TrEMBL record:
Pfam families per record: DUF4096
Protein name: Transposase
Domain Insertion element IS402-like span(s) in chain numbering: 7-78
Organism for this UniProt entry: Streptomyces vietnamensis
Domain of life assignment: Bacteria
Region (Disordered) residue spans: 103-143
Length: 162
């Protein structure tokens, strides 16, 4: 099969049993391996879907399979299972090191004085949202606190090293 960046036989053998099978109602599906390699090529290179090389089959098939599997949770399930297998085999190092040499702080984070920002559209001067379509009467600070709590809960569920 095509490029040296396609899935190896060993990678495919780990992935293939996890993929959905055709239900038979819509005819026979194009080879999953060819389509998955096309998706990976597109993600890796950033090529427009219509410019996908012919060796990956019709671009419409690759696009539709990606759309369908994204919508039904297949990609999420594949990621979780492959990560779990790799983690169990000790193939993932969950240690992450971040410092100022790799992530720059915004100048506001350094305590620099700046003019107050103009009022955001949709907020009243007291910081509350205007009520209306999609709006609430909760203060913006309360919404920010709720988002931060949600992010902290999500971060707490991620694997951590000892």
């Amino acid at each position: 099969m095509g490029s040296g960046s396609d899935l190896t036989n060993a990678q495919w053998e780990r992935l293939e049993p996890l993929l959905p099978v055709s239900n038979g109602r819509c005819g026979r599906w194009r080879d999953h391996r060819q389509v998955v390699n096309g998706l990976l090529f597109r993600m890796r290179t950033g090529v427009q879907r219509r410019d996908l090389p012919e060796r990956y089959g019709p671009w419409t098939t690759v696009h539709e399979r990606h759309r369908r599997w994204s919508a039904d949770g297949t990609w999420e399930m594949l990621l979780r299972r492959i990560q779990a297998e790799a983690d169990a085999a000790g193939e993932i190092d969950w240690d992450v090191s971040v410092d100022s040499t790799s992530v720059r702080a915004h100048h506001h984070a350094a305590g620099a004085r700046h003019a107050p920002s103009p009022p955001q559209r949709g907020l009243r001067p007291d910081g509350q949202n205007r009520s209306g379509p999609g709006g609430t009467d909760r203060p913006a600070a309360e919404v920010v606190r709720e988002v931060r709590r949600s992010a902290a809960r999500a971060a707490g569920s991620l694997p951590r090293s000892i």
